[in-house]
Hints:
Number of strands: 15
Organism: Muribaculum gordoncarteri
Number of helices: 15
Pfam family, one: KH_NusA_1st
Radius of gyration: 36 Å
Oligomer: single chain
Helix content: 25-40%
Shape: elongated
Strand order of the largest sheet: 7-6-5-8-9
Largest sheet: 5 strands, antiparallel
CATH architecture of the largest domain: 2-Layer Sandwich
Subunit structure: Monomer. Binds directly to the core enzyme of the DNA-dependent RNA polymerase and to nascent RNA.
Keywords: Cytoplasm, RNA-binding, Transcription, Transcription antitermination, Transcription regulation, Transcription termination
Subcellular location: Cytoplasm
Amino acid sequence: xxxxxxxxxxxxxxxxxxxxxxxxxxxxxxxxxxxxxxxxxxxxxxxxxxxxxxxxxxxxxxxxxxxxxxxxxxxxxxxxxxxxxxxxxxxxxxxxxxxxxxxxxxxxxxxxxxxxxxxxxxxxxxxxxxxxxxxxxxxxxxxxxxxxxxxxxxxxxxxxxxxxxxxxxxxxxxxxxxxxxxxxxxxxxxxxxxxxxxxxxxxxxxxxxxxxxxxxxxxxxxxxxxxxxxxxxxxxxxxxxxxxxxxxxxxxxxxxxxxxxxxxxxxxxxxxxxxxxxxxxxxxxxxxxxxxxxxxxxxxxxxxxxxxxxxxxxxxxxxxxxxxxxxxxxxxxxxxxxxxxxxxxxxxxxxxxxxxxxxxxxxxxxxxxxxxxxxxxxxxxxxxxxxxxxxxxxxxxxxxxxxxxxxxxxxxxxxxxx
Length: 418
């Protein structure tokens, strides 16, 4: 009696799992039948001559074995054959040799080991099914905004649990500098990727992705959610500064004003979520010159010379505007370049022509590569970019030694003197 109860309870527990994990009835029956067949195949060597009938409404299962009737004494495989006398004795008195005899198998009679094997097989298949469902649910949702409760934090990542008990992993590299989470705190992020390696589902989320900023604006600005305002481009340096270009499909709506809100009411919530990341909202335009000019705000540009094929822009500014265009830590020019898709070279507007300018990469034989990279990071792409910038500003922005900057200036000046 105890064994019968174990099997019944096991079926009931499967039904409970089905309700919890939203597994449909058809799948439930299929998985349970397959589990029985796998265990029976190991016991009998095959399941081809077995009929497994699930009765989900009654919570039980019936198993029938179809055997070939052979003459007495000629049974070679008791799992596929039965002697004529045994078949007639098993409530089938009119059966003949060569016909099929069906008998019911009482699974509980095979003992506790068989029941244990069935339970383990069933649990394994349920786990696989659960992982497949999670993978299918999240795979097409990259970029979607999700929320999770902080469950545990390690040195390299934080584990979040969403409302359906799914595990979300936030790597430290995808967290905003300054993020500090406490257990039980609710954290928002976007789904970055969903991996399935060796049947191990990993849902990685991000707070540094450009998409995270997009989703926050969609959440806070109804006009974006309703499609009246479109986000055309986003550029971020997480935790520091961001630029976002927006346009309105309704002439009556000011896209910048709508995104900022009255007295900054809409954008303040986003800034707090991003750990006080400064956000510049600008009007998008298809005119690249005007777009670059707006992207470099608050600097005022004197003139721009574009190379649309190479996606390069030579921007000329008065000397006092150069630091504004570059920005602290070169953040402004980096974000402007990323937002517009143009490599932006900044020049002092002295009235000189720069047709004979030379890219810094041409000086690798005389200037160390790391020095060139430091200069490029602050927007100095060419020799005249460097020469147009005040010496003190070069030292400060590029974080270089005075002797190094003097040596670079000397090399570049010599090139043009020649």
